[in-house]
Design brief:
The protein is an alpha/beta fold. It has 3 domains: 85 residues, Winged helix-like DNA-binding domain superfamily/Winged helix DNA-binding domain (Arc Repressor Mutant, subunit A, Orthogonal Bundle), CATH 1.10.10.10; 122 residues, Aspartate Aminotransferase, domain 1, CATH 3.90.1150; 237 residues, Aspartate Aminotransferase, domain 2 (3-Layer(aba) Sandwich), CATH 3.40.640. Strands 7-13-12-11-10-8-9 form a 7-stranded mixed beta sheet, sandwiched between helices. Strands 1-3-2 form a 3-stranded antiparallel beta sheet. The protein is globular. It starts with 6 loop residues before the first helix and ends in a 13-residue tail after the last helix. It comes from Micromonospora haikouensis. In the C-terminal section; belongs to the class-I pyridoxal-phosphate-dependent aminotransferase family.
Length: 485
């Protein structure tokens, strides 16, 4: 059944739609239609949802029904709304658009688009040799059925060795290979969180983690991160665990996505102790742990301080290697891994054997590959921060000591409006509200430094021009109605 958004709900999402910056003054119906398209663009209004009736939305927005009717008509003409008499109107994409990996709708013909919505690197040159070597290894697996719910033993041994090298002794029985880190999180949630369970997350946090929690109908509470290098407020975080006693907490302590913060060792130990006292399971996302920059020394893994099987670590190949290689993993106690494998059978049985063998060869060459990635990312980060300092000096940036993203504080609550305007000049952005709940974080923007330095400088130049245009644009404002006696 198609879900429906009520008039008051859509009005809340639209916010001050009448005052959004634009290139020129437009009629109210066009501004309303543009605001709805903007909600679709940044993922805050889902596809396939039924919009409120024209009269209901007009009452919620306190505007004329004629304005809503004209806005709906424009949305139908642009292909963002389908209507059927007696059935209502529901959101959709134009035939010339698709859903990108960011979840945003994007034009099909986007070869000139600089995509800053995806925080991932292109494949390393070592991938092709690894794929050829994996193909040579494949014949010894062809005599079996090919189902390995916890993963092929070579890969589990390689991943376990990586944890052991970081100071966390790990056996292959504690590793389950998954089809990416997101798949690892989904399986852990199936095992550890009943529908409607209470979950603590950071704010901001990874948007796809929020989507996975929403699919479990989780009741989400947040711990707000500081914008400076401090990141977590220890007293507030520990207090949230002790007082809220969530069933689960999802944290990204290693170069947090999107802020780039690195949690200190002392706080990691205290978080584990507080979680044990509160009866909370910790899901620790280590997607960026291989990418410290500038010689940054990493604290011990959070699971180092775990004595009661409260910590489940997830990671994968997407960030240091390549997103197209869908290999992730879970590190947990051996009994938890077996329970995860049993839960997995109802989802996808096992990860592809050939992909796992490619991962084995890449991990064998990890020191060289990751060192080159770190050098590349450090140069691109510096190029991006330098461009921002030159072209947009009013934006506040704290350069992270690792990871792949900057969390930029803008000079106003314009993130979504900026993203919509930037799309018109060939730059795709992930606005701040995608990283939080309820449309907050409009003063922030995530900018990855995973593209070549020249592309990053060009993107910043286009953003600077768009920001200047937003300042010059006339902004319609509400006015008090005149009193007529």
């Amino acid at each position: 059944m198609t879900s429906q958004v009520r008039g008051v709900q859509l009005a809340r999402l639209l916010g001050q739609w009448h005052a959004l910056p634009g290139r020129r003054r437009s009629p109210d119906y066009a501004a309303l239609a543009g605001a709805v398209r903007g909600l679709l663009a940044d993922g805050r209004l889902p596809l396939g949802v039924r919009l409120p009736a024209e009269r209901e939305l007009a009452e919620a927005l306190r505007i004329s029904r004629t304005t809503v009717t004209a806005a709906y008509r424009q949305l139908r003409e642009s292909g963002h709304l389908a209507s059927r008499r007696g059935a209502g109107s529901w959101t959709m994409l134009p035939g010339t658009h698709r859903v990108a990996s960011t979840g945003l709708w994007t034009p099909l013909d986007d070869r000139d688009m600089i995509d800053l919505g995806v925080a991932a690197l292109a494949a390393p040159p070592e991938l092709l040799p690894a794929a050829r070597a994996a193909a040579e290894d494949l014949p010894r697996y062809l005599g079996g059925a090919g189902y390995h719910p916890t993963g092929v033993i070579e890969l589990r041994e390689a991943v376990a060795a990586g944890y052991t090298a970081r100071g966390l002794p790990t056996s292959p029985d504690q590793i389950m290979v998954t089809s990416g880190t997101q798949h690892a999180l989904d399986l852990v949630l199936r095992l550890a969180l009943a529908p409607g369970g209470n979950v603590l997350v950071e704010s901001p946090t990874y948007p796809n983690a929020l989507a996975a929690l929403a699919a479990r109908r989780a009741r989400i509470t947040t711990h707000g991160l500081a914008t400076d290098a401090a990141g977590w407020d220890a007293d507030l975080l520990l207090g949230s665990l002790r007082q809220g006693r969530p069933k689960l907490a999802y944290l990204i302590p290693d170069f947090q996505n999107p802020t780039g913060h690195l949690m200190p060792a002392e706080l990691r130990e205290r978080v584990v102790a507080a979680a044990h006292a509160a009866g909370t399971d910790l899901v620790i996302d280590e997607s960026f742990v291989d990418l410290p920059l500038d010689g940054t020394e990493l604290p011990p893994p959070v699971a180092t301080f775990d004595r009661h099987s409260r910590v489940i670590s997830i990671g994968g190949m997407s960030k240091p290697y390549w997103g197209g290689l869908r290999i992730g993993w879970v590190r947990a106690s051996a009994p938890q891994v077996q329970r995860l494998a049993a839960a997995r059978v109802g989802v996808d049985m096992a990860s592809p054997v050939l992909d796992q063998l490619v991962a084995v060869h890449l991990l064998a060459d990890a020191p060289a590959i990751v060192a080159a990635r770190r050098t590349q990312l450090a140069a691109q980060r510096d190029a991006l921060t330098d461009a921002l300092a030159r072209r947009l000096p009013d934006w506040r940036v704290t350069a992270p000591r690792g990871g792949v993203t900057l969390w930029v504080e803008l000079d106003g609550p314009i993130s979504s409006a900026l993203a919509r305007a930037a799309e018109e000049v060939g730059v795709r952005l992930a606005p701040g509200p995608r990283f939080g709940l309820d449309g907050t974080l409009e003063r922030f923007l995530r900018l990855p430094f995973t593209l070549p330095a020249a592309d990053l400088a060009e993107a910043v130049g286009r953003l600077a021009a768009v920001r200047y245009d937003l300042d010059r644009a006339s902004r319609p404002r509400w006015q008090e109605p005149a009193v007529i006696a």
